Amino acid sequence: MDTMLLLLIIGIFFGFFVQTISGFAGALVALPFLLLVMPLAEAVCYISIFYSIASPIYFYKEWKNMDKELLKKLAITSFFGVLIGSIVLLFGEPNILKKALGIFILLFVINNLINKNNKRFGAKVQFILGLFGGFFSGVFSTGGPLYAVIIKSETATVQAFRATMFGILGIVSIMRISVLAFEGVLTRSELINSLYVLPFFILALVLGKMVYLKLNEEFLKKFILGLLFISGFMLIIKN
């Protein structure tokens, strides 16, 4: 087994293990491993492939817990964001925007720790954050934390948060992989390599679900905020 395939397996396994527990952060966990052996555009393709495979599973199992109205709003705004972000992926890497996203996420976490009564976002703010969520998903495959900020403020339980996160990330991944295929970024070799990773990906989903069922809601809330904090910090310090 070559180094590229080994790191791809490790990245996808740990990424989707965390993703299944928390509802997001799969790309942020997987990307550091993948970027050691491949360019950003290729890493985004692999992550998009596995998000697309996971999406029907997540939708089937979590549909009843999803906030359908919020999901619809975010899907519409994200579509335009993904289109813009995927184009930017081909021509540049705006790291200053990624660092700004990291700062925003850290401020959100700090506010949650200080102010327990979270304020809901207005329609205009939801539109803007949804647009940028799609944009960062298209460019870096890291729009999850931004969606988590929106959905956490709009849902009352961890179950609804996690399920709605699965929903929007699934929709965005299908948009993203369609655009990448149209632009010629997605290649046959990536699809073939993904078949080797598939058993480890399935194992990550099964183990992640087992761990999730053993955790209580209060711990999961802290775990989600902790992941957001780490995500924001990593976006700031990494190039």
UniProtKB/TrEMBL annotation:
<feature type="transmembrane region" description="Helical">
    <location>
        <begin position="33"/>
        <end position="53"/>
    </location>
</feature>
<protein>
    <recommendedName>
        <fullName>Probable membrane transporter protein</fullName>
    </recommendedName>
</protein>
<comment type="similarity">
    <text>Belongs to the 4-toluene sulfonate uptake permease (TSUP) (TC 2.A.102) family.</text>
</comment>
<dbReference type="GO" id="GO:0005886">
    <property type="term" value="C:plasma membrane"/>
</dbReference>
<feature type="transmembrane region" description="Helical">
    <location>
        <begin position="194"/>
        <end position="213"/>
    </location>
</feature>
<keyword id="KW-1003">Cell membrane</keyword>
<keyword id="KW-1133">Transmembrane helix</keyword>
<keyword id="KW-0813">Transport</keyword>
<keyword id="KW-0472">Membrane</keyword>
<feature type="transmembrane region" description="Helical">
    <location>
        <begin position="97"/>
        <end position="115"/>
    </location>
</feature>
<keyword id="KW-0812">Transmembrane</keyword>
<dbReference type="Pfam" id="PF01925">
    <property type="entry name" value="TauE"/>
</dbReference>
<feature type="transmembrane region" description="Helical">
    <location>
        <begin position="74"/>
        <end position="91"/>
    </location>
</feature>
<feature type="transmembrane region" description="Helical">
    <location>
        <begin position="219"/>
        <end position="237"/>
    </location>
</feature>
<dbReference type="InterPro" id="IPR052017">
    <property type="entry name" value="TSUP"/>
</dbReference>
<dbReference type="InterPro" id="IPR002781">
    <property type="entry name" value="TM_pro_TauE-like"/>
</dbReference>
<feature type="transmembrane region" description="Helical">
    <location>
        <begin position="163"/>
        <end position="182"/>
    </location>
</feature>
<feature type="transmembrane region" description="Helical">
    <location>
        <begin position="127"/>
        <end position="151"/>
    </location>
</feature>
